[in-house]
Structure formats: C-alpha cells, structure tokens
C-alpha cells in the first residue's frame, strides 16, 4: 500500500490543478447565479472520482479533491457491518463492488428491502474486521478501468472524514432495513457527533425527522432524496411523485432535495430533451435547495449535448431560467470546469492561446459532413478553420466530400447500386464513386451522418439530423468561407491519369475565381498527403501548405523534418503519434511536436471526437481534457475536430490559460501517470513504439498529366497511374484539403 500512495502522490502532482490563493479569485468578475442563495452551484463527488477508481476508495477521494474546484463535497453511501461500523459502498449488496463473492462463495443471502426480495452478499452479515482484513474493492461499472480491481481496501466513514474533505455528504439509503436488523444509522451518526458532516441525505422521511434536532445543533443540512416517481417512500407509503406535489411539507424536516436529473430536464424516448419542469423554481419558492444526481461522462444522456458532458452541466446551471444548487457526479473535474470556467461564457470571447480550431468535414458530429449545415454550424460554434475535401463529379464539378466513395455518407448505394464498381487503387471494397456520377445525380442523394462508433458500441450521432443539409460545390464553399470564416480541399493521381479529372487545376481555378489567391486578410491552407500535390501550389505565396501524415510515427528525425520543410509549412498528425494509448490509457508522450517546431513547422493533430469511447481514461472521459492535453500539454498549433464547439469553448475560457492566476485551471493529463498507479501485473501490455518518420516517406513522384479521355476512349487505351514511393502517401488517397482562416481568427492566434 505504501508504494501505491507514493505513486499516487506523484500522479496528483503531475496532472491536476492545485487551487490558487483566494486573492487571485477576487480579480475575476463576479458571476450571478440563479441558485437559492445566489452562490455558485456545488460539485458533489459520488465516491470521489468513481468514474476512474472504485467508488469511495482513498485514491478516488484524493484525486477528486486535488483535481476539482475548491469547495468540493465528497459523498459516501453508508452501509453498516454486523457490529455497527459504517463503510462507504455504492449499494446495500457488496458483490457488485467488492471481491466478497470470491472470498465467501457460500455467503449469498436473500433479504426483503423496501418490499422487494434482493439476493446477494450484504454488509450486515460480516464484521468490520472481516471486511477490512479480507475484502477489497472492484469497479462496479464494467466499461470503466478494471486495472485497480482487488487492490484497494474499503473505506470506513471515519477514513473519509480523516482526509478532511472541504465538505462531506453522507447518504443513508436504507435506514428502515438496518433498523429491522437492529442496526441504527442514527445512533452511528450520534457516535460520530455529526462532526465534519456537511450534508446527510435519505429517501426515508422518518429517518430525517429522527435526526433533525442533532442536525440543527451540528449545522448539518438534511436533504430529502427522491427515488423513481412510482417507487414508495417507506415512512408514508406514498409514491415519490405524490410527495413531490407538496414541497412545502418537505421544508419542515429538510433544507433541500436531491432528485435524479430527469426530474428537472426530462428526456423523451428518442433521447432528446423535453421542456424543463418547474421543480427547481417550485423548490426555491419553498425555500429548498435542489441537487441533481446521475451525472456521468461515460453515460451519454441526450443528443442535445453532442456527447459533451460539460454541455449537460451547463444545461442545469446556466440556462438563463434557473440553476440547481449542486450536482452529484462521478467525474467532479468536469462539473468543476463547467461551473467555474464555462458558465456565463457568452459572446465570441477572444481565445486564450494561438491554437486553431479546425473542423473535420465541418461540424460533422452534429450534421452530415461536408454539407451546408455542417459548415454553418461550425462557424456558429467558433471554428477558426472549416475544411473541404475536394472530390470531382463525372462532369468535372468540384465539390466537398470526405471520400470519393459516396456510399458511407450518403444514400448512394440504395440509389445507384447498379453503378457500384471496384477501384483497388482507392479501396478494397466496392463503392459508388463521385467520378462515376454527374453533379446532378450527386445532388439527388441525401447526405447521411456518419457515426464512427455505431458498429463497435452502438453509439449513434444525432438521428434528427441524419439526412439534413446538402452537399456544396467548391465554388459555393469558397464563397461561404470568404463571407464567414475559413476553408479547405484537395486531389490525387488516380483521377488525373484514369478519369481525366484534374482536381489541382479545379482548386486553383476556384481560388482564382474567389480571389482568395490574392487575399492578404485571409490565409489559405492547402493540405495533402502527397508532396507533389503541395508542389503544385508552391508558386502562390499566400498559401500555407500542410502535409498530412496518415500513419503513426514515434519520432521526427531532423532529416525527415528538413524534407518536409521543402514541401510544407505545417503537418497534420494523428493523435496517436503524439500520445501513445495502451488499453485506453495514455501510456506515453512523443517528442514529435518539439522536433517539428525546431524545424519551424506547425503541427495540427487529428481527429478529435467527443464520444467517450474514443477518449483515454486519463482525460476523465472528457473531450475538454483531451483538448487541453494536446494544446497546453503537447503544444500543438491546431486541433482538427468534428465537434468545434467543444474546442472553441475551451480555448475561449480563462481556465485554458495556465499562466493566469485563477481559482481553477484545466490542466493537461500527464501521459503514463494514471496507468503507473496500478500494480505492474494489472497494467495492459506495453505496445511496441511507433517507428520514426522516414524522410523517403515524405517524397512522392510527380503527378501524372490529366488524361485526354476523348483520345483514350477512341483508342481503347487505359493509362497506368504511377504509384507513390513512400508508405504514407498512396494513390488510395483522393483528398486535397484547402483551409482558409478568417482574419479575426489569425488575430486571436497571434495576440
């Protein structure tokens, strides 16, 4: 255990924010809150950071206090042993959160709890000594880290009080059950003298009334907890929905209520928000505080939040109509940043750093990618750069689409199944390709939102927008970019040599037509994984050329950097080339950004998404912490994301500026710190390091000339397309990305 605590102290020191001095907070503008008392909503950590560690273990509580805003409340769910000791565990049954069923395989029993028969291993059947000496904790939600299972002891209530949390909340769920078995939670609390206990909550009215006088004397707040609306409250035998109708009566024995978040913002069967109830306003009118429970980064609630957990907290504390007085969460750092950093963040605030927010197919997390609506949403969300991957139609119209194959992101397969073909140079499977359809035929298709995790874990993106928007031509995209914000697009050898379609020429023509090639107020970025494509734009000074490196690398030797500098001013690199991942943990950090910066090459990282399944445990399953890790931790010059709103909000928050004195800061995670806390035997096997970037992978052969299709058709000849010499740039890639940045965005980047 000593090794554990030493490692953990290093982990805490390296990756969490220490609260700043109160004097620094005085310099910040005062926020006006719509809570009962006008104060900032509280953050209540359910068992510490139980989204990472087993609930209420010492590590979970310590990390919660160190990584959350000042004034954090630690919550312990009280269970009682046969000899009257109080322990912190999530459920009256121990088998889902501890190793007890393995140690005592014959200990399963059935008890009637609140009128229902429950089968399992119960704390009241074991003495405190038996539990503390033999039983250890496990993570009770299977999608969360399991490498700490069996390593951590169960915490007594006194253990948690002993670390002196800023505030302490004791949840007493089953007083009637324990009283039936001659164990008294009330007497246990009196033995503690109620010392250090800020809140006591219970779903049982009789229990709260029984300790009312003690609570008043100790200045402990009593909170009545609502369960499922149709469940029965044990003391009154009334449904909780019925009790809800008379909040004034609750004020007689409690100072607040704790409700599942659906009591406040209900969600319909399609997972969209319904109108808010009047519960918060009614409770405040009755003089009751309102605490909402059920918040968790890795359990998506509503499509309205775009898989951004901070957006959900803001819905409860900063909606302009009301604010809850506190939130109970498994991930208190995320709640802290939402309340302390993002609330009341109105208007287009200047960014704290130089990093650019670059879209991947527009705001493709909310709308079908490369559509007018995806681009409009990206601009509204504060993107500095919007991107357009250029494809060509059969009749030579350049338009925006992520791939030459239209089957994944449109209804092409259903509409033009007979036109599906095999193009091995592009992909191993059949597809319906843009260069085989006219623009009019492409316009007849419905866009289709892409959900990258639907097959793996069933996580889909906004179904209400599944087929929303329309594809746009390159000309229209550039016109929109010039008026609003930014732009992007590109080419490949296959179309030029075999289909007689020259994307590079089409892009140049479109840029000239839009006059962006003569602009000094807007910077244009041209991106490709092909150095020969970038060479085609070398003669136009306003263009910034970006080399896309589509394979994982672990180092950038000087020779490779020097070769890149001949062709590009910046690189687009996979996030796994900057931070290596092992078993969903951030295992290590490379020096690629530093090496590129030595060569005066900017670094953009891609692709960042909001869905928790794509985010390392070290980032608290929170996309904001991932952005902070790459921007503040790795020093990238831009992030490429499908959810620009999340990145923009982080960069426009004062908490992203680590040089600024403030009560709370969003710090980057330290790669390797979290995984090192676990026993070596429990850690996932280390992955082989990524290879260094080879200079020869940067060099590509010249582009083939655009084929004369009329002559080829007359002779029946089929020109051969030369292949790439490097392993990165291949003929399979048909994309050339062009990005235009709004002048104001550049001002933010350079201020």
From TrEMBL:
<keyword id="KW-0812">Transmembrane</keyword>
<feature type="transmembrane region" description="Helical">
    <location>
        <begin position="728"/>
        <end position="749"/>
    </location>
</feature>
<keyword id="KW-0472">Membrane</keyword>
<feature type="signal peptide">
    <location>
        <begin position="1"/>
        <end position="17"/>
    </location>
</feature>
<dbReference type="GO" id="GO:0006629">
    <property type="term" value="P:lipid metabolic process"/>
</dbReference>
<keyword id="KW-0378">Hydrolase</keyword>
<keyword id="KW-0319">Glycerol metabolism</keyword>
<protein>
    <recommendedName>
        <fullName>glycerophosphodiester phosphodiesterase</fullName>
        <ecNumber>3.1.4.46</ecNumber>
    </recommendedName>
</protein>
<keyword id="KW-0732">Signal</keyword>
<dbReference type="Pfam" id="PF03009">
    <property type="entry name" value="GDPD"/>
</dbReference>
<keyword id="KW-0325">Glycoprotein</keyword>
<dbReference type="GO" id="GO:0006071">
    <property type="term" value="P:glycerol metabolic process"/>
</dbReference>
<dbReference type="GO" id="GO:0008889">
    <property type="term" value="F:glycerophosphodiester phosphodiesterase activity"/>
</dbReference>
<dbReference type="InterPro" id="IPR030395">
    <property type="entry name" value="GP_PDE_dom"/>
</dbReference>
<feature type="domain" description="GP-PDE">
    <location>
        <begin position="41"/>
        <end position="339"/>
    </location>
</feature>
<keyword id="KW-1133">Transmembrane helix</keyword>
<feature type="domain" description="GP-PDE">
    <location>
        <begin position="355"/>
        <end position="651"/>
    </location>
</feature>
<dbReference type="InterPro" id="IPR017946">
    <property type="entry name" value="PLC-like_Pdiesterase_TIM-brl"/>
</dbReference>
